[in-house]
């Protein structure tokens, strides 16, 4: 008799609520919810490598947010000391601020540092324009996160740091994911060793990518001396010159005088060229004129001067 009562007690009867609700509704509390969170409560991702600029595209996004709101929720994670950290959606947050919004729709997700880093990098690499410096720091952050996720091997297996269960290195997996070669990933990461002014020159295409990689092996003081010489002489190193400076740096023979000598030497097949600093000309042109527009006007003026001189010579005959 007692055993029969125990069996009855163990049977769980379906409640009325269970009968008239769907499985999706019953699982809803376990799913991620979209919440409106004040912008003031959301901080940027720590060491976020991607620039959020108030450019024309951002102005357009802000105008769209003003008219229609944020259509795709951002992804945030809770902070231990309160508030939230942005994981994916920095541009939407900036556009919302510019549009005068006070809050933004968010998906709140519990993520550890490595998970958040990988999502942050992946979401931003989808942008149409990603600068070399952004790629450099993003690749480095994601690769370090992937290595930590792969686990720390024992000392006997130290050479296998960053391998997954299939024996692939983290850098190989990253290369496959972003469509770059393993070597190119490592070359991008080298750029993080450049001092900020030289890295900015790479972003602005004032220095080519390959010479910049070689320059990254120079010590900070050597890079600073190189920067000063480039500005003073209005020139940048070729790949061959950058490789020579790298070798001299490794041999402890590189200094400011050597850098000056390398940069000012005549390059093979180099033709003499005339360079006029933009600062000397900009006062004669409207502020919105590009270098190309300025060049076209200067050439036209020189051509007019040349024709006038030709006519004067003909009259003298």
TrEMBL record:
<dbReference type="InterPro" id="IPR004437">
    <property type="entry name" value="ParB/RepB/Spo0J"/>
</dbReference>
<feature type="domain" description="ParB-like N-terminal">
    <location>
        <begin position="35"/>
        <end position="125"/>
    </location>
</feature>
<comment type="similarity">
    <text>Belongs to the ParB family.</text>
</comment>
<dbReference type="InterPro" id="IPR036086">
    <property type="entry name" value="ParB/Sulfiredoxin_sf"/>
</dbReference>
<dbReference type="Pfam" id="PF17762">
    <property type="entry name" value="HTH_ParB"/>
</dbReference>
<keyword id="KW-0159">Chromosome partition</keyword>
<dbReference type="InterPro" id="IPR050336">
    <property type="entry name" value="Chromosome_partition/occlusion"/>
</dbReference>
<dbReference type="InterPro" id="IPR041468">
    <property type="entry name" value="HTH_ParB/Spo0J"/>
</dbReference>
<dbReference type="InterPro" id="IPR003115">
    <property type="entry name" value="ParB_N"/>
</dbReference>
<protein>
    <submittedName>
        <fullName>Chromosome-partitioning protein Spo0J</fullName>
    </submittedName>
</protein>
<dbReference type="Pfam" id="PF02195">
    <property type="entry name" value="ParB_N"/>
</dbReference>
């Amino acid at each position: 008799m007692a055993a029969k009562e125990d069996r009855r007690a163990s049977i769980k009867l379906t409640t009325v609520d269970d009968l008239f609700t769907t499985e999706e509704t019953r699982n809803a509390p376990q799913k991620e919810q979209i919440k409106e969170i004040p912008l003031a409560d959301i901080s940027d991702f720590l060491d976020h490598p991607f620039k959020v600029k108030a450019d024309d595209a951002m102005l357009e996004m802000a105008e769209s947010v003003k008219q229609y709101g944020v259509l795709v929720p951002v992804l945030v994670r809770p902070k231990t000391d309160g508030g939230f950290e942005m994981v994916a959606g920095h541009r939407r947050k900036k556009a919302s601020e510019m549009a005068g919004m006070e809050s933004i729709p968010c998906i709140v997700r519990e993520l550890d540092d490595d998970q958040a880093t990988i999502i942050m990098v992946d979401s931003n690499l989808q942008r149409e324009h990603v600068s070399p410096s952004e790629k450099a720091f993003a690749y480095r952050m994601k690769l370090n996160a992937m290595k930590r996720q792969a686990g720390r091997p024992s000392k006997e297996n130290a050479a296998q740091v960053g391998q997954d269960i299939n024996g692939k290195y983290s850098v190989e997996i990253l290369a496959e994911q972003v469509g770059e070669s393993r070597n190119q990933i490592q070359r991008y990461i080298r750029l993080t060793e450049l001092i900020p002014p030289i890295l900015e020159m790479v972003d602005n295409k004032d220095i080519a990518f390959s010479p910049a990689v070689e320059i990254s092996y120079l010590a900070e003081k050597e890079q600073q001396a190189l920067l000063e010489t480039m500005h003073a002489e209005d020139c940048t190193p070729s790949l061959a010159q950058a490789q020579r400076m790298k070798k001299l740096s490794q041999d402890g023979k590189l200094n400011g005088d050597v850098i000056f000598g390398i940069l000012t030497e005549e390059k093979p097949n180099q033709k003499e060229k005339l360079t006029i600093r933009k600062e000397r000309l900009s006062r004669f042109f409207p502020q919105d004129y590009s270098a190309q527009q300025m060049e076209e006007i200067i050439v036209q003026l020189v051509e007019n001067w040349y024709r006038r001189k030709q006519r004067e010579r003909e009259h003298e005959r």
